[in-house]
Amino acid sequence: MGGGRRGRERERERERLRRRDGEGRVELKRIENKINRQVTFAKRRNGLLKKAYELSVLCDADVSLIIFSNRGRLYEFSSNR
């Protein structure tokens, strides 16, 4: 009865996929609290700059990233080889 085993495996896989549907999803909306918004901006900005650097190193790619804050401050990364 190998078919029964495969059926159970398929059902387990479907259940695993169903459980993951809601996990890890964050609703994207403006952060109303100014301090929280600034903290999030700083953390995400640093993460983006790090990812841009990693992409340039790992993939030997030319990468440029330009970020303007809501105050008009410029943050930039450019790989140079």
UniProtKB/TrEMBL annotation:
Entry keyword Nucleus: yes
Keywords: DNA-binding, Nucleus, Transcription, Transcription regulation
Segments passing through the bilayer: none
GO BP field: positive regulation of transcription by RNA polymerase II
Domain spans labelled MADS-box: 21-81
SUPFAM superfamilies in alphabetical order: SRF-like
Organism: Spirodela intermedia
Top-level lineage group: Eukaryota
Major subcellular location class: nucleus
GO CC terms: nucleus
Protein name (Swiss-Prot/TrEMBL): MADS-box domain-containing protein
PANTHER family reported for this sequence: SERUM RESPONSE FACTOR HOMOLOG
DNA-binding keyword on record: yes
